[in-house]
């Protein structure tokens, strides 16, 4: 049996974590033969709730779960980490300006980045989930200069899964019959869900998504807006944000990062844009199609980009650049 790995989940008393922790602890993410030490970090008022989560994890009697460590201390939470899943963030409150939200989160992710720098392994893989995820990820990375930028990513897999599912439902096929959808840009309503390069397996034959769907106006209209606004639609219906689907996407993202993507497939990840071939400004965390091998991602280069896609890719990049500039002004204060 391998040595245990240390996996941190922040915001660990929250609803996404509640849907996530069982899957991690039973081996769905890091492997069925990989023992785990789960470190659960949250703010002091949430510690009594966290104790209940610890009890439930113990009561699951999971053979791979070697230890559960609940804490509100960063020096314990970030110590010797192999993986960090940063779910906790300041949620947007009613009447809150976006810049106020950014300011609050810059403080959180500056602290967490500094804690990664000081206490975690330099090989740690970091996934930022808490919104605004792309910019929070950039701040965390800048606050941990000795950890490679490539070790930081943000979650756009939920958007990717939403896009994949929408196409699959439209074509009457299982979700895994759809591959190579792309989410470009920000995890916000400016993101661009792109199916120009996607393939659909219809009756055993791979068909381009546009040919499988046979409804260009839907693919260029309602499909895009449905994926962009899906989070808001879930909140309107449930009065709570996406948790089960977010947890599933986190598992998908980390499992692919650990074990790699399938040959001929790429997945969407928010990653450092440096050196990209799509004309996206470099100092951003931007969602690209990536393939992964040996725990390292590479942006899938060389996809032809039409004018429709170019405009949408540039619009979401512009939003990210504005977010970055605002956040960096707070970082130096």
**Computed structural class:** alpha/beta
User: What percentage of residues falls in helices of 4 or more residues?
Assistant: 40-55%
Radius of gyration: 19 Å
Mean pLDDT: 96
- General shape: globular
Sheet with the most strands: spatial strand order = 3-2-1-4-5-6
How much β-strand is present in the residues?
15-25%
In summary, what is this structure?
The protein is of the alpha/beta class and about 325 residues long. Helices cover about 45% and strands about 20% of the residues. The chain contains twelve helices and 14 strands.
Description:
There is one protein chain. This protein has helices spanning 15-25, 47-59, 74-77, 98-119, 133-142, 157-171, 209-213, 216-220, 222-228, 230-238, 244-259, 307-331, and strands spanning 5-10, 36-41, 65-71, 83-86, 125-128, 152-154, 178-179, 182-184, 192-194, 199-202, 205-208, 267-272, 285-293, 296-299. It is of the alpha/beta class. Strands 3-2-1-4-5-6 form a six-stranded parallel β-sheet. The protein has a three-stranded antiparallel β-sheet with strand order 7-10-11. A three-stranded antiparallel β-sheet has the order 12-13-14. Strand 1 (5-10), helix 1 and strand 2 (36-41) form a beta-alpha-beta unit. Helix 1 crosses helix 11. The radius of gyration is 19 Å and the shape is globular. It starts with a strand and ends with a helix. The mean pLDDT is 96.
Structural features:
about 325 residues; alpha/beta; six-stranded parallel beta sheet; three-stranded antiparallel beta sheet; 12 helices; 14 strands; about 20% strand; globular
